[in-house]
Amino acid sequence: MEQTKNDEKKITSRAVDYSQWYLDVIEAAQLAENSPVKGCMIIKPCGYALWEKTQKILDEKFKATGVENAYFPMLIPERLLKREESHIEGFAPEVAVVTHAGGKKLEEPLILRPTSETIMYEVFSKWIRSHRDLPLLINQWANVIRWEMRTRLFLRTTEFLWQEGHTVHSTEEEAQNRVLMMLNIYKDFAENYMAIPVIPGRKSESEKFAGAKDTYTIEAMMQDGKALQFSTSHNLGQNFAKAFDVNFLDESGTKQYGWQTSWGLSTRVIGGLIMTHSDDKGLVLPPKIAPTQVVIVPIVPKEWDKQLVMEESQTVFSNLRLVGISSKLDDRNIRPGEKYYEWEKKGIPLRIEIGPKDLASNTVVIVRRDTGEKKTVSLPDLNEAVVSTLELIQNNLFEQANNRLVENTISVDSWEDFIKAIESGKFVRAHYSGSADVEEEIKKETGATVRCIPFDQVEESGVCIKSGKPSNGRVIFAKSY
RNA sequence: CGGGGUGUAGUAUAUCGGUAGUAUCUAUGUUUUGGGAACAUAAGGGCCGGGUUCGAUUCCCGGCACCCCGACCA
User: Fold this and answer.
1) In angstroms, how far is B60 C1' from A336 CA?
2) Within a domain: residue A73?
3) Do residues A383 and A417 share a domain?
4) Which of residues 8 to 67 on A have a Cβ less than 7 angstroms from any strand B atom?
């Protein structure tokens, strides 16, 4: 009991530290002083570099499946948003509206896109006439505005950056395949690049996207045990196609509505990255997402060593570039200890120290950010050692996060255990009736929601944790960001 | 929008109804450099408006901002 209490304390204090790291390490700041725009973020270069890397990796994967990039307007006529009933219901409370422009009141207000389904599908209906125009596979990198009541840096800001993919297919089956294909790309990105293990599954009725037939998600666990919806992929069915007249003539000349999907991933994942790997020393970046993978710190205690050490550092720097490692040579005139602390705080995966002692023995010292382990490596083997160590770091970070996820996921069968488990920050596998009312009740009493109906759900008869009604499988409950 | 809290230097903080202090950061100089260097000098401050008072950064009222907790959500 005492142990649990201490752990909770530790977790809480960590959660507080994260918000500090957002500012210090990632260099983003929420707009505050004298600004009417609340909860927007300024992403400075070192944070934006992470987003650029994300864009690069995803773009490549999208293009490999035939998706093309395009761009649509940020201003959307209000009437378009109203076309699909459940869509407007879901988004109306958080939409920002432009009522005046050009010095006059507008006849029809324009909304700032909270997402682009409506304006894109209005256009798609003109682009698509025949089954030969399908599938239509479009992605857009853009900003969107959602006037949330409460904001939180990176995880929920008024304006955020994201990519939103939108596709139209001639068959329901093809659309469903696309939905799962994109979810898989997100899972690959989360696990193999950001080293964040995720649980893929389907959203419950009340958590799904406004206007979708089904929403699929990958859910990650932060260090405090709370869930983060990493990204989602929606099967829109024909809901929007019917509202926006997205139709085509099939082989037999019959008019048919398209089957649509949409899928997105936002700057929220940068927050997730920080909250998954950071430790008490600061940020920890997995090598495959780190804009700078290695920092080289030359050590020059005596002036007469300086030239030799600097020359060697330059050589190491150039050699690393040859094997595709991005590195930084820190030749500032400050003490080495100060540099170590700075780069550790910024999460650079690997540090190379080069000094006179190393030159004498034709070696260098490499230090891992994740474990702090120091190793002496002979110069000719350096490139190889760096490449293999970065790989070890990448794998270790995933392992650590995955162990945490596995250890903190439990199955429970009684309401008392359920409450206890949720309070201690676990992912809980429990039986559930599937009714939205029951979910609402559980949320009110415990703060937990259905994160997803996992793909690995096993057929098993039981009774709903709250209502006692029969259920044939467990879903995942957790508190979430 | 409801409940609670806080506004002092770029940052973090202290004190006080009567000259606002410390650390850090910044600038310059000297000595330093294998885990956050030392000394010297300089620069920099009370959210906004009103009231009480001889005098307000302090007390009171109003505004604004920010933080935490709820409802909303990627």
Assistant:
1) 55
2) yes
3) no
4) 19, 30, 32-33, 35, 38
Rounded CA–C1' distance between A147 and B51, in angstroms: 38
Are residues A224 and A103 located together in one domain of the fold? Answer: yes
Mean pLDDT computed over A258-268:
96
Nucleotide nearest to A115 (CA to C1'): B74
More confident residue, A115 or A24: A115
**Domain assignment of residue A289, yes or no:** no
A65-79 b/e (C-beta count within 10 Å ≥ 16 → b)? eebeeeebebebbbe
> Using a CB cutoff of 8 Å and minimum separation of 24, what contacts does A29-36 make?
A30/A151, A30/A153, A30/A157
**Distance of A82 CA from B34 C1′ (whole Å):** 66
How confident is the model over A341-347, as a mean pLDDT?
A: 89
DSSP state of A193: I
What is residue A345's predicted lDDT score, i.e. its pLDDT?
Answer: 86
Closest CA to A201 of A390, A45, A427: A427
Q: Which residues are paired to A76 by β-bridges? A: A111
Distance from residue A371 (CA) to nucleotide B73 (C1'), in Å? 36
Which residue in A85, A336, A87, A68 sits closest to A210, CA to CA?
A87
Environment class of residue A427 by beta-carbon count within 10 Å: exposed (0-12), middle (13-18) or buried (19+)? buried
Whether the complex's predicted ipTM surpasses the cut of 0.95: no
The nucleotide closest to A337 (CA, C1' atoms): B35
**Which CATH number is A29's domain given?**
3.30.930.10
Distance CA(A450)–CA(A204), nearest Å, equals 7
